[in-house]
Amino acid sequence: MTMRVAEVRVTPIAFRDPPLLNVAGVHEPWALRSIIEVVTEAGRIGLGESYGEDTTLADLNACAARLAGLDPHDLAGLRRIVAETLLGQEEPVAAIPPSGTRRVNVAFGAFEVAMLDLQAQQAGLPLHALLGGAVRERVPYSAYLFYKFARHHGDPGYPTDDWGEVISHAQLVGETHRMVQDHGFGSIKLKGGVFEPEYEIESLRALRAAFPDHPLRIDPNGGWSVPTTLRVLPKLDGLLEYLEDPTATLEEMAQVARAASMPLATNMVTVEFGHVPKTISLGAVQVILSDHHYWGGLRATQHLAHLGRVFGLGISMHSNSHLGISLAAMTHVGMTLPNLTYAADTHYPWQEDEVIAGGKLRFEHGTLAPPPGPGLGVTLDRSALAALHENWVRCGIRRRDDASEMLKHQPDWKGARPRF
Amino acid sequence: MTMRVAEVRVTPIAFRDPPLLNVAGVHEPWALRSIIEVVTEAGRIGLGESYGEDTTLADLNACAARLAGLDPHDLAGLRRIVAETLLGQEEPVAAIPPSGTRRVNVAFGAFEVAMLDLQAQQAGLPLHALLGGAVRERVPYSAYLFYKFARHHGDPGYPTDDWGEVISHAQLVGETHRMVQDHGFGSIKLKGGVFEPEYEIESLRALRAAFPDHPLRIDPNGGWSVPTTLRVLPKLDGLLEYLEDPTATLEEMAQVARAASMPLATNMVTVEFGHVPKTISLGAVQVILSDHHYWGGLRATQHLAHLGRVFGLGISMHSNSHLGISLAAMTHVGMTLPNLTYAADTHYPWQEDEVIAGGKLRFEHGTLAPPPGPGLGVTLDRSALAALHENWVRCGIRRRDDASEMLKHQPDWKGARPRF
Hints:
2 copies of one chain form a homodimer. Chain A has 420 residues and is α/β, with parallel strands linked by helices. Chain A has 14 helices and 14 strands. In chain A, helix 2 (75-87) runs antiparallel to helix 3 (102-123) and helix 11 packs across helix 12.
């Protein structure tokens, strides 16, 4: 049964985001995202969700204009169109270059999810079934902890949240209690790189005391130098299931890996398939955080996970601020990966807004089953989409800039990395 | 739309095979194969084709008995059932072991093709579209040359062929002319390991003179020692697009690779995903010959090809004696692999018999487009299947044994390897 793409709509949105701290600064009041609708001639709609930076929007729109007439099954054709649109040429076939395909992967992945949604809808199958079938019925997610300010700086019209300030160890333990109580998460990730490593390790010890059975992770986002990391490594012994991106480069990660007792994970130094050979030859990381938004979609995520099994690399899942379309896609593909041996990251509990009909998806015991029904199982709430798009029009933010936002709070803040 | 497997039939067949020479001896008069039919409750039939050795048949039958009720989309469920049936336990999820999954891969691959055929039929799509879409409309195949005897030894009732004896260089050039004229092949592979390497290299030189523009390969099937290979390597300079399996082990291939001017290819030393890490770390081969029959199906073939792109390994395609179901499957998946940068091997022109309706598939200009229609595009010729099964019942061969067959022709033949 032939389907043909009639139209592709890319709608930029902005949703409320709390003032979460990280190595780059602090989250702005509005997080950007794009909602992709691939509409067939028969009026069926496949959904995708991706980044909302102006550069990504430009790429998505340039490609979207060229997708009419494509069969949503033809992912090879999609890849060709995206590559020709963004690179001005075909991709090399014999080998994946060691860098430079990220733009193509991002745009391809956004449309691929929507086209897979269409394929599964047409087949009357949930997306995970179309992707080869589930190895688990629910996908485990982790509690994603942040230090945070009590409120955004400036405009009194900026969104507020009821999490309050989280700076002290006690405040962080309180945040975690609420997060675990509300969602049942069975493992904990702390976004680090904000304070001196020793302070953040004290936080981890407080979390360990309060949650003795929850695996812990910390992610300083490359904010530590190699000497700093080597200095604090002994303090982390026995405390972590993995240490995520302590340092900023592949070579630095390799140096740390040789001294570390725990696996190193990354979503910063190994972010394209072309990075994998050197990652393996250096032994730089032991866990790769997959992310269909930049690895190139759900089939690419399956390729990555398979590659992980071949080389004995663990697979976890990375997240940026996102809404329910992304969460549904993560969940469907996560159900199909035998070696998703770690709970996936998600910012989702930090987001009040939603763009899918029926409101926020709900975790149970820290896990999520995908919404029932064919495809992704989600449809758009049109009035929510319109309101979130209006946020985007009015908020004026076009590129995420956590550093500038931080300087509004702390004019003497220094963003140079490694920060510690 | 739910499908359920109602019944799985595994029919052993034997078809006529010429007395083709190779390092292990000579092909017997009958080649064995299994035809797999996965029948849904609605009566739809998905087809697969695999090995016909008694060991494989036992595995296929053991699994077949446990597939009723499975949704043909549930490849994860198929994998679980096959592993539990053959291994008595689940497969490890975190890492693929460096050996031992071949039995599971073989059985899984046989059923997976049939289940993908069902999926594509139900979706009304040709199989290549279901697999992500074609990057080429036709798949190139190579002329697969053999030295051969004029006729089989013994029973006058054994099948005959009209290719005659092919031992001399002139006879081999003649065989090639016919093969190229009949099918239009644009590249040439010589099955070697039969005569002294120097003699086979003279054959290659005769082929080069007669076919100056055809890329050449030779495959001694691991029949050469390392010293022999190093001795003859200079004579092969500039003559080959790749040298396939000159030596028998991964370590030997690595020794040869360090001295070789041409890429080394293999279907013998790297035959499971678990072999890949060492293959890469040793730099032992530059081209992997994929084969969905033992790598674990069509999705596994896509994983392998993707892995090849990541590590800059070339991908070609291996073949045993086979009929049209296997050829259709090879062609559909071959259409989807960006880096199938070499023409695929196929024994198909050596087979007179066929099991699919409509008779033999036809190459044009050395390439094949898949049969039109949804799924694999092939259906069974029931009377042909019955006749080929009757061959199997009567021929008495249950395991391929080229060495014993060779001893009937040449009682003083020595099969010890390396032969040279």
